[in-house]
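Figure-free illustration: sequence to structure, shown twice.
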Amino acid sequence: MMAAGSLAVNALDVLAIWVIFQHTGSPAGFDLAEVMFLYGTASLSFALSDMLFGNVDRLSPHIRAGTFGTMLIRPAGAFVQVATDRFGVHRLGKTVQALIVLCIALSQLGVPPAFANWQPGLFVLDRPGPLGLPYGLRFAAPLAALALAVLAVLAWRAGIRRYRSTGS
């Protein structure tokens, strides 16, 4: 029920975009399918990250309660345990809604599926960048994501090595 409610609430984003297009025509030269493609890729990225890593913000209460030390002695990794603790089914609604929007946009555009955001999305749509940024920047997003993921893993491991249980 929560997933269906989340899907319905997130569908309001699509409705808002549709209303904007009904009143403005083609903002910055983009048509509705192109904007839905950009919206779908961004929403899917955020929804997947929220679904997979949204519970990591619950780490502090585990540390305060002394339950994080218990996670460290279990055979599963501490990160996996924290990430899956109290998984919210409502997060599936966001993911499904983003997938639906992206699939509809892709069917309208006839472009292949791509892991994209703004700059990579412009590449997939074969559109010039309105900001005049270098063309090569369109391929930097995956490299930046990989670099940030490596930094996050290193920070997590450093924190785990230095963690001392509350002793309770």
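We now fold a second protein in the same way, so the two outputs can be compared directly.
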Amino acid sequence: MTGSRPNMFFIACWYCLSPLLIFGIWIFSMAQYKPLSIAGYVYPPWAVGLGWVIALFSVLCIPAGMLHSVLTSPGHSWLKSNATNAQADQYILKAPFKTHVQEDAGACPECKHFL
């Protein structure tokens, strides 16, 4: 956006530090979860479930929008190139490899390189 690469600190934060911290906060909040109660009234499980569903609708729009824009955009995307690379890897793994040992130093008759 500014025409220069971001500092290594920011790259490390975006790819490693932030996801690990967010995952840790999520795990600890799930471990300490208590049902909602206000002034001694504990809400029924269906009401708590409805609240979670409403909250998930707003959160799931972000990855759904990302996936939609990646799949419908023109050109090559990571998902499309990854599928192509997987097909190429399968071809490479199935290709026969020839191994040979030349006793004396000289030109290899099969591949014409000098040993």
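Summary for the second example: The two ends are 51 Å apart (CA to CA).
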